Amino acid sequence: MTLPANPPVSVLLVDDHAVVRQGLKLFLGLDPLIEVVGEAANGEEALAEAERLIPDVVIMDLMMPVMDGITATRHLRRRLPETEVIALTSTLEEHKVNGAIEAGAISYMLKDASSDTLAEAIHAAARGEVRLHPEAARRLVRDFRGGEMRETLTPKETIVLQLIAHGYSNKDIARDQDVSEATVKTHVSRLLSKLGLDSRTQAALYALKHGIASLDGVEV
């Protein structure tokens, strides 16, 4: 038996409907490089389970009792910054889309997404790459309030920003630019600071809003 070259991406499923969690668990189980390590029925349970399991990715419903998914995402990203969150919901309401991204979700997907699309988004999130539902991306670009450029980016920072918007991970950028991942991390940190942004997702949206990258070039 040939073992996978890389360990599977560990995933925590968060949804207040057990049948939804069960369905997700069944079809994600078809991917040998994804392992569902736990489940939670609301935001409070999600935080407790995430701190216990330290998953790579959390699939987060947004509309739940006790604690909603946006609030849970905000707390989770503060406590476990290495764990990425994919918002998986049934709505494209602007305040939900904006709220999830501002809270720190790396991706925004709808529950009618195909199993292959969601699995790809999970692998992308584990690599630090953005995946957005096309309509969510359009609304975020339209509504994102990044303002004018606060500081001038260096040419290298501009290239890094373009590559982030095109879904490149730090490893991909390092390979593309023939530099170390540590150097890329420094560029990312500096450009986020200059632009007053908190995450790679916000950076991607900023690049789209200001014409640094095109929507057609972003994986959604």
Labels describing this entry:
single chain; alpha/beta; 50% helix; 220 residues; Arc Repressor Mutant, subunit A; Rossmann fold; 6-stranded parallel beta sheet
Strand and helix map with partners:
Layout: E1 9-14, H1 18-28, E2 34-40, H2 43-53, E3 57-60, H3 69-79, E4 84-89, H4 94-103, E5 107-110, H5 115-126, E6 131-132, H6 134-143, H7 155-165, H8 170-177, H9 181-195, H10 200-209
Parallel strand pairs: 1-2, 1-3, 3-4, 4-5, 5-6
Give a brief rundown of this model.
Keywords: DNA-binding, Phosphoprotein. The chain has 220 residues and is of the alpha/beta class. The chain contains 10 helices and 6 strands.
Task: Explain how this protein is built.
Keywords: DNA-binding, Phosphoprotein. It comes from Deinococcus koreensis. The modification 4-aspartylphosphate is found at residue 61. Residues 146-211 form the HTH luxR-type domain. InterPro entries: CheY-like_superfamily (IPR011006), NreC/VraR/RcsB-like_REC (IPR058245), Sig_transdc_resp-reg_C-effctor (IPR016032), Sig_transdc_resp-reg_receiver (IPR001789), Tscrpt_reg_LuxR_C (IPR000792), WalR-like (IPR039420). This protein has a 6-stranded parallel sheet, with helices on both faces. It is of the alpha/beta class. It has helices spanning 18-28, 43-53, 69-79, 94-103, 115-126, 134-143, 155-165, 170-177, 181-195, 200-209, and strands spanning 9-14, 34-40, 57-60, 84-89, 107-110, 131-132. It is globular. It folds into 2 domains: 9-142, 3-Layer(aba) Sandwich (Rossmann fold); 147-217, Winged helix-like DNA-binding domain superfamily/Winged helix DNA-binding domain (Arc Repressor Mutant, subunit A, Orthogonal Bundle). It starts with 8 loop residues before the first strand and ends in an 11-residue tail after the last helix. The protein has 10 helices and 6 strands; from the N terminus they run βαβαβαβαβαβααααα. Strand 1, helix 1 and strand 2 form a beta-alpha-beta unit. Mean pLDDT is 84; it is low at 145-149.
